[in-house]
Structures are given as C-alpha cells and as structure tokens.
Amino acid sequence: MYLQGEFDFGIPEPPWRPKRPDRAFFGLFLQPRFHAPFADLQNQLCHRHGIVGKRLSVERFHLSLRHAGDYRRLRSKVVFAASRSGRHVQMPAFEVTFGHVGSFPGRPATRGRPPRHPFVLLADDGPVFELHKLLGVEMLKNGLKAPDHFVPHLTLAYDQKFVPRQPIEPITFVANDFILVHSLRGLTKYLFLDRWPLMEAS
C-alpha cells in the first residue's frame, strides 16, 4: 500500500534543498482531538520562554520513532522493507506523556547564519520505548539500519534561543497507530506511505 495521506501546507518551494531530500521515518502523529491542547501549550511555552522563531503547525506535530534513512530519491525497495517491518509489529495502544520542555543543540551558528535550536517537548518513560525497540528488531531483519539512540520528543518550534531542560505540567496523547512517512525535506511536506493500527488495550 503506497500513498495513504499527504500534508501540503501551502508554503512555496524554497531555493535550498538538501543533497538527500527524501527522508523516510516512522512516527506517531496526534489525532485531531489532541490538536487544541497541544497548540495551546505551544503558545504558552513559546511566550513564556521568548521563542520567536518558526513554529510548527499543529498538523505536523509528531513523535519520531525510527529514522529509515535520507536519500537522493526514495526507492521502492526501501519503502517495501520499511512497510514489511511495520506490519510485523503488534502492540496495544498506549499513552505518551510529555513532562519536560527544552532545546536540542540543533544547528550551530555558521557563515553568518544564527543557530537553529529545536524547542521540544520531551516524553517520559513508557511504552513508546517498547514500540521503538520492536520496530528496530524488524528493521534489522529487513536490511534497514536501526540505531539504538532514542530521545522521544515533539518539536514545537525552531529558534536561536537555547532553553535548558525543565519540567512542565504533563500533557498526554493516545497513540492509536504509527505511520511510515516520506518527508520531502525543504518543502514542508509529508506523504503518508503506510499506517498500522495499534491494538486496543484489553
């Protein structure tokens, strides 16, 4: 099953695109019922910490589970291997709770350009780590790389300011499925290639 869904946010193509513009990854996306509380929190936290840089639209809010690679052109064999990996993962639906906020190092200042720090919500321990592990096992079986490093987070914005990690009032969403995404880097566009439901918890 190929193209299942697409987000195109009406932003014209910029003059710069990376050498490997096609990215494939597995992610958890917020269902629409969670958009409003997360958007409200984004506004509150950006205002509180003086974040004035580019904010992500709430439709793009997601937690990346596994990176399947960056490519000059995403080939069908990679999509096949990733889809085969995803469909062999079975797990109950679960909650993801974010209890901290802070900045990642991101891109340093270079050639006169200011730094670009991702401003993110950081997830607490929970079943998301098990899903990450199960996906990694299947990806390795299907010839894909699956590094162990994992810091589950949801990016709110990008800014020059660096905010140290600190606690917030926890906010939660329910993960009912996970998605294989083709990200067109530089175009602010996601294509949903495949989707797998997580089983309802008994």
Automatic annotation (TrEMBL):
- Highest taxon in the source lineage: Bacteria
Please indicate if the UniProt record lists Ligase as a keyword.
yes
Record's keyword annotation contains Oxidoreductase: no
Q: Which InterPro entries match?
A: Cyclic_Pdiesterase (IPR009097), RNA_CPDase (IPR004175)
| MF annotations from Gene Ontology | 2',3'-cyclic-nucleotide 3'-phosphodiesterase activity; ligase activity; RNA 2',3'-cyclic 3'-phosphodiesterase activity
Q: What is this protein called?
A: 2',5' RNA ligase
Q: What keywords tag this UniProt record? A: Hydrolase, Ligase
